Amino acid sequence: MDLSKNVTVVPKRASIFFNSKLRKIGIIFPGYGYERVSYALPVKEIEYRRVVSIPIHRLERKGTFYKNTPVILGQKVDLIHTWNAIPLSNIPFVVSFENEIPRYLGSVYKWQESLGLSILNSNRCLAILALSDIAAALAREKMLNLGYPGIADKIRVFRGGVDVSSLGEENEISAIDLKCKRPLKMLFIGGDLFRKGLVPAYMAIKNLIEKGANINLTVVGRFKEGGYVLRENSPSPLEWDKLLETSDWVTHYKSLPNKDVIKLMHDCDVLIFPSYDESLGWVIIEAALLGMPAITTNIFAIPELVKHNETGYVIDINLGRQNRWQGIWSHGTQLKAEIEVANENIREGVEKSISKLLNNPELIKIWGNAAKEYMNKLYNFERAANQLHDIYFNCLNKNN
Predict the structure, then answer these.
(1) At the N or C end, where does the chain have fewer CB atoms within 10 A?
(2) What does each C-alpha distance from 67 to 120, 228, 249, 267 come to in angstroms?
(3) Predicted local distance difference test score (pLDDT) of residue 33
(4) pLDDT tens profile 205-232
C-alpha cells in the first residue's frame, strides 16, 4: 500500500468528481471490514478521501501502538473515520471498532495507553462506533471502571451494512435431493484453520461418515502453527495439509478470490464456523445473506448473529472474561485442558447439529431463510447508509 501520496477513494456508489459542496470524510488504512462501515456505503452529501499518516508504525516490532495511533498532518477533510485507530491530528474523528478500544496489542507502555484514552476523551473524538452490542457494553464498562464516563457516553452500536446484490441470490436447496441423491455440502472458511476450529469439526464429520453419513466438506484457508489461541498446543500444519489431501470427502483450497468464495457459498448448504476466538464473524454474515445457516460457537458477538435452532446452531464452549473462550486467559496445563474440553464440545456439537440436518433436511431451508431475513434486518445496506449520514452530520454540527 503506497502511503506517499493522497489518493481519492471512489467506492462504487460514490461520486467520481470532487464537489466542493460535499463534506469530506477522511479514511486511514482502508482494509477488510472497514469498507462495510464507511466508504462502501452510499452516504449522501459526503465524499471520501484517503488521508496519509506518517509511517512510524513500520518501525514498530512488538506492538500496535503506532499503527493504531497514526500521525496525520495537513489533510483537508472535515472529519476522519478510522478503524481501531485513534489519530493524532487537529481534525475531529469517529472510530469504529470490533473488539476493544484502544486496540493496542503486544508491548504497551502506560503512557501510550494514557495517550490513547486522553484522545478518546478529548473534544476531537466525536463518536465511538462498536460493531456489536457486546463490544459496546464491554467498552462502556471498561471506560466507567477507568474513570472516563465521557468516553463511555460516546460509545454506540453501528454495525455497518452489506450490499446483498454484490453477493447474488441465495441457492435453492431441495430437501428431497439432499436426502436421496447427493451429499450434504459443508463449507469451512478461515484465515487460520486451527484457530477457527477445523480440527474438532473434521473429527466430527469423519465420525459421521464412518457411520454412513453422506457428507462433503470444502475447506478454504491455511493452517498456521502457534498463534495466540492454541500457542504451543498447535498441531502440525504439514500433517493436517496431508490429512485433508488424503481425505476423499474433503476439497481444500489454501486461498481463493472473494468471488470464488461467494460462489462456494452459493453451491454449499451449511457454513461450519466453530471458532475459538472471534471479534465478529463477517463470513457468517455473508453466508446468512445468501440463505446459508451456520454451525458456530457462542463466543463474543456470534450469538448476536446466529439464533440457536432458528437461524443456525450455536455450540457452547467455556467462556471467560469479555465473553471470549476461557483458553485465551489460560496457560500451561490449564490451557491444554481447556483445549481438550473445547474440542470435545465442538466435536459433539458439530456431530449433533449435522445429524439433526441429515435427519430433517428441510431445516436447512428453514434456518437459511430465517438467517437471511434476520441478517437483512441487522445489515440492511440503505438503512446503514442513512444511519451513517446522520452520525457524520451530527458530529459535524457538534464541531461547528
Answers:
(1) C
(2) 16, 19, 43, 39
(3) 62
(4) 999 999 999 999 999 999 999 889 999 9
Domain ranges of the chain: 23-161+380-399, 164-378
Q: From CA 122, how far away is CA 70, in angstroms rounded?
A: 16
Identity at 277, one-letter amino acid code: D
* Helix (H) or strand (E) run with residue 346 in it: helix 332-359
**C-alpha grid cell, residue 147:** 474513570
Q: What is the CA radius of gyration of the chain?
A: 22
Q: What is the assigned CATH class of domain 164-378? A: alpha beta
20, 44, 72, 171, 262 from 23: Cα distances, Å: 8, 10, 18, 40, 34
Q: Is the peptide bond before 102 cis (omega within 30 degrees of 0)?
A: yes
Q: Longest Cα pair distance anywhere in the chain, in angstroms?
A: 68
Predicted structure pTM score:
0.88
* CATH class of residue range 23-161+380-399: alpha beta
